[in-house]
Amino acid sequence: VAKGAGKNQWRRYQADLHGAMVERLELRSALDHAAREGHFLLAYQPIVDLGTDEPVGYEALVRWHHPTRGVVQPAEFIEVAEESGLVVPMGRWVLEQALHTVAQWRRILPRSRQPYVSVNVSVRQFREAGFADEIKQALAKAAVPPHALMLELNETALAGENESIRPVLQDLRDHGVRIAVDYFGSELDGLPLDVVKIDKSAIDDIAQSQDQLTRVQGMVALSRQYGLTVIAEGIESTTHRDLLAWLGCPLGQGYLFSSPVDGTEALSQMTDRLPLVA
Ligand code: C2E
Ligand code: MG
Ligand code: MG
Questions:
Q1: How many Cβ atoms are within 10 Å of 83's Cβ, its own excluded?
Q2: DSSP per-residue letters across 167-190
Q3: What are the residue ranges of helices labelled H in 71-153?
């Protein structure tokens, strides 16, 4: 009996594995289709000055408008898009769309309130030949100054790639584009960066755990030593905001200020000039 059960378990495991593979393949072709049909859209989340609660920039976050499932979040498709390489053309669209939007905002808003836009970039995009030139051309085409664009890389993706992408980072940075990295560790020593983003997972417990608060304090201090600006992600309460401001963290993002919104609502946030806290 035991032997039979084992065999059944094995069969079920095989069937699950097969099902998962089929699902991934289906997701891949649905994503290809979405890219061809223009079914992606961008949401924008404010990056806020923790001294004034006013937005200084907006992070562009991709969504997939699925014909039957509605709006699908990146957690459900970015990984497959990376694997299949689709993240490259998708990223190109994200960049162009984000630049187009920030150009519009900057035309409408007075100089003192003109935001920058921050775009998440996959390491796969950085590895494409001509990536830096593509960025420069997109900036020129949208008539957006380089300092109004920030590129976000994620550290886990960066690990072990430092040397191959350093010249690309340096080139873009020399051009005036800002470079941010999600999270911060020893891997990043000496990379040409401007901004460190501290992940939500590090921020979550700072009000409950003295150890965690000390750890974040260390990250902020270290970043400043390197001459980097800090953005804390996942600020959900005024306690988070106040603690971070007290630690000397200049900028933050999170649901306390605003969840990601569409471009029109982001523009209202900037024109209303109201502090982004309830
Ligand atoms: P990320 O770059 O770390 O973006 C922050 C994520 O945290 C976003 O999720 C945002 O909606 C969410 N978030 C912001 N504030 C809060 C908060 O206070 N509480 C909580 N619980 N969550 C908060 P989202 O939009 O689902 O994006 C997930 C990840 O997908 C991003 O993480 C980024 O790595 C990736 N991604 C998004 N857009 C793009 C893109 O255009 N290209 C690439 N390559 N990756 C992207
Ligand atoms: Mg990001
Ligand atoms: Mg993050």
A1: 12
A2: HHHHHHHHHT-EEEEES--GGGTT
A3: 78-84, 87-108, 123-127, 131-142
How far apart are the C-alpha atoms of 199 and 197, rounded to whole Å?
A: 6
Stretches in the chain below the pLDDT threshold 50: none
- Cα Rg for the chain, rounded, in angstroms? 21
pTM to 2 decimal places: 0.92
Ligand 1, CB within 6 Å, residue ranges: 45, 61-62, 73-75, 78, 87, 91, 94, 120, 122, 152, 154, 182, 200, 233-236, 253-255, 260
Q: Provide the residue type at 59 as one letter.
A: E
Per residue in 126-151, pLDDT (tens digit) is 889 999 999 999 999 999 999 999 99
Tens of pLDDT, residues 98-131: 999 999 999 999 999 999 999 999 988 988 999 9
Q: How far is the CA of 224 from the centre of ligand 1 (A)?
A: 24
